[in-house]
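User: Thanks for the earlier help. One more: Nitrogenase iron-molybdenum cofactor biosynthesis protein NifN. Can you show the sequence and predicted structure together?

Assistant: Of course, both are below.
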Amino acid sequence: MASILPPTKSAAVNPLKSSQPLGAAFAFLGVDGAVPLFHGSQGCTSFALVLFVRHFKEAVPLQTTAMDELATILGGAEHLEEAILNLKTRTQPKLIGVCTTALIETRGEDFEGHIATIKRERAQELAGTQIILANTPDFDGAIEEGWAKAVTAMIEGLTRPGEQVRKSKKIAILPGWNLTVADIEHLREMVESFGLEPVILPDVSGSLDGTVPDRWIPTTYGGTSVEDIRQLGTAAYCIAIGEHMRCSADALRRLTGVPYILFHSLTGLEAVDRLVSLLSWISGAAVPAKIRRRRAQLQDALLDGHFHFGGKKIAIAAEPDQLYQLTTFFAGMGAEIAAAVSTGDRSKILEKIPAQSVQVGDLGDLETLAAGTDLLVTHSHGRQAAERLGIPLMRVGFPIFDRLGSQHKPTILYQGTRDLIFEVANIFQANQHAPSPETLDPFRNREITDDLASSPLARH
């Protein structure tokens, strides 16, 4: 069990984590016809918007209540109401996801009361638009917590409560924030190959997959529909991916009685085998031939790739669940986790990290701990540390803004695990150093030294 080391600095040096409201907005972007709304200053929203656009290279419908100095002092209820009504008039969204920021959370406003009043007094004007509140102050948590809070808020605010008639083939899936667009697409295909009907919340593969609509759409296009969220209680089972999604799965079970199965990771042969066995049991169907073929491809990749991983030292910095996903992958391939840095210490999954310790900190801590390792694994903000250390960087997570196509890289299931093996092995091969005579023959220098010492010149 890994020991969790608390932060050692009072200020972050090259921050590792992204904010809670950004994580909540990310989740709202996985709903069809949605607009995330930051309740705070314009600067908070602009920073998050820049990160989204640089990562996805897409137009992102992120809006703000644009609190100014006067509203900050006197209260932002009027700004919130004005922003919601403007969004309704101009964009006709099906869902407005309100993400609170540190500015108004510090002031201590009654956000739930404000939104309840707006819904009641403006019911006719807001007909057809759902408003969901996620309390996500910047000073607490990170992208992982924000994502989970938004998903939980959508379930609690939209899903029809009470026991309902279950559809035996319907499966609710609650993916973690660290699953890419490609991951969710592959997951859907796998579930459907068993004859099951997946409902994924949130589904960023439908809204952030890089397609270009034939006209300007001011909201998200694609993703989970509001009606699908309402009908989650008709699912036979729920599959949650990542420890941070446990609270969302608990909320669904509490409201509707739908049982859930939690997977801490879907990367690696054993983890994917568990999922495949579960889907086969739920559906009563045999494992399809194409799934078996992908498993055989992964087995071959494991044989081909493990030579490149053995004895390698890896330094990883990521959110807790992604840190677990990556560390277990590398450890399973025979590498050593020499440094593990996380954004927070609340997640129970950190205790299961296959490393001696997990440092809660930033990329400055990673740079200090990563000296002498063979590979640095984190997002694009780690590129300077990798350059200073002379260590190759494998980009994962969010944001990745100096490479194209990160959202289309699979990291889970048989295919994603296979591709990860190849990517890492190729990095190692591209950065290996040709052996010198000294490394091939450790006694070579000693023999030369002994000969010199015994020579007549040395005696005189």
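User: Great, one quick takeaway?

Assistant: The mean pLDDT is 92.
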